[in-house]
Design a protein that fits this description.
The complex is a heterodimer of chains A (179) and B (187).
Chain A (H helix, E strand, L loop, with lengths): L9 H24 L6 H30 L10 H31 L5 E2 L3 E2 L8 H34 L15
Antiparallel strand pairs in A: 1-2
Helix pairs in contact in A: 1-2, 2-3, 3-4
Chain B lengths: L1 H19 L2 E4 L5 E8 L2 E7 L2 E6 L9 E7 L3 E2 L3 H7 L12 E13 L2 E10 L2 E14 L2 E11 L19 E12 L3
Antiparallel strand pairs in B: 1-11, 2-3, 2-11, 3-6, 4-5, 5-7, 7-8, 8-9, 9-10, 10-11
Classes of the chains: A mainly alpha (179), B mainly beta (187).
């Protein structure tokens, strides 16, 4: 396996790892914070969680535009069904990268808490305050996150399979400092 | 003679109306008491559902006006159920020990036009502080409408003790907005 494999472009790699890192912080933070008794700490954690989510939403826009205008490297040889699963997972991950933070933003609005990005930039409330809608959006946010967890698990498992079992260069194409 | 009497009567009547229109029957259903706190930079609106207020305001003699306001602190809506449960507790209002907050005016200043300023003492949670509350007065039919807002510093009254004394989470400044409607006394 010494022939060079085509890599993802720099911006695609940067966006991938940056968003991955933000999700890896926001997800456990969300799981941890929502059961805390009300405290100043809880208010802070909620704000950090929302700021991270909005950052993902903001990064998603240039990322998806870049993805549409720059074809990723062709997949390395693998059975067609594996390729299909990988591609499907990627598409759903893009979808949730958008829907998860959006559902959080909507939920925050419905719960009566405007999102103020970094505590300074108030974002518009996309829906009015409503207890019923707030509870519904909470369920939606949780369900989408469960989906995200499954997809990320599948995505990581696939990447590890290419490293450990196939020993091909699939993961290396996305590594920040690979050749 | 008749004309003089008539003129005199008219003068007395006019003077009489200028002094007799005192707005002092507070219409609780039309009045409201709201506030806005800032949590991590997020403005969170709230209100008190139950309060009693006495107002005596004659636009011809505004400096003689007086008002008291007593707020049932347990009637707070602080924006969410969690917050409502929290703020009645010991670290916040401690409503078991201090069920009401009270404002008693000590004077009213006319600022020109329809603008005034109520000065008074606010007592919350055993702490009494001077308060200056600017307001406007507007007559709507038989009703007097008072609208005002002022900023209260919650730490002046120990509202939010212990970890809640951290004003970087919940800001010290709480904006209070009042909308009072009082009808003219029937005489």
């Amino acid at each position: 396996m010494n022939f060079p494999t085509p890599r993802y472009t720099g911006p695609a790699i940067a966006a991938h790892w940056l968003i991955a890192a933000l999700i890896l912080v926001a997800f456990p933070l969300g799981v941890y914070m929502h059961d805390l008794p009300l405290s100043p700490n809880k208010l802070k954690l909620y704000s950090y969680h929302k700021w991270i989510g909005i950052t993902v939403l903001l990064l998603f826009v240039p990322r998806i535009l870049w993805r549409i205008t720059h074809r990723p490297p062709a997949p390395l040889p693998m059975p067609a069904w594996q390729h299909k699963i990988a591609e499907g997972t990627h598409h759903l991950l893009y979808l949730l990268m958008f829907l998860v933070p959006l559902s959080g933003w909507l939920m925050s609005s419905a719960k009566g808490f405007q999102v103020v990005y970094f505590g300074v930039l108030p974002l518009p409330d996309l829906v009015g305050k409503s207890d019923d809608l707030g509870d519904l959006l909470k369920a939606v946010h949780e369900t989408l996150n469960f989906g995200l967890l499954v997809l990320v698990g599948l995505h990581v498992a696939g990447a590890l399979k290419h490293v450990i079992i196939d020993r091909d260069g699939t993961l290396r194409r996305m590594l920040p400092f690979g050749k | 003679m008749k004309i003089r009497t008539l003129a005199l009567t008219a003068a007395v009547l006019m003077a009489g109306t200028a002094h007799a229109v005192e707005f002092n029957q507070v219409d609780a259903g039309k009045s409201s008491l709201a506030f806005s706190s800032k949590q991590m930079g997020v403005p969170v609106p709230g209100s008190f559902k139950r309060f009693t207020s006495q107002i005596a305001f004659d636009p011809a003699k505004p400096t003689a006006a007086s008002t008291t306001l007593e707020i049932d602190l347990a009637s707070i809506d602080a924006g969410s159920k969690d917050a409502n449960d929290e703020v009645v507790g010991k670290q916040w209002f401690n409503v078991k020990a201090f069920p009401t907050a009270k404002f008693v005016s000590t004077g009213v200043k006319a600022l020109g036009g329809n603008r005034y300023e109520a000065l008074g003492k606010m007592t919350i949670k055993g702490q009494t502080r001077d308060v200056v509350a600017p307001f406007t007065f507007k007559q709507e039919g038989a009703s007097g409408v008072f609208d005002g807002a002022f900023v209260l510093k919650r730490m002046d009254y120990n509202i939010g003790e212990g970890p809640w004394a951290d004003v970087s989470a919940v800001a010290n400044e709480i904006e209070i907005k009042f909308h009072m409607v009082a009808n003219a006394a029937k005489k």
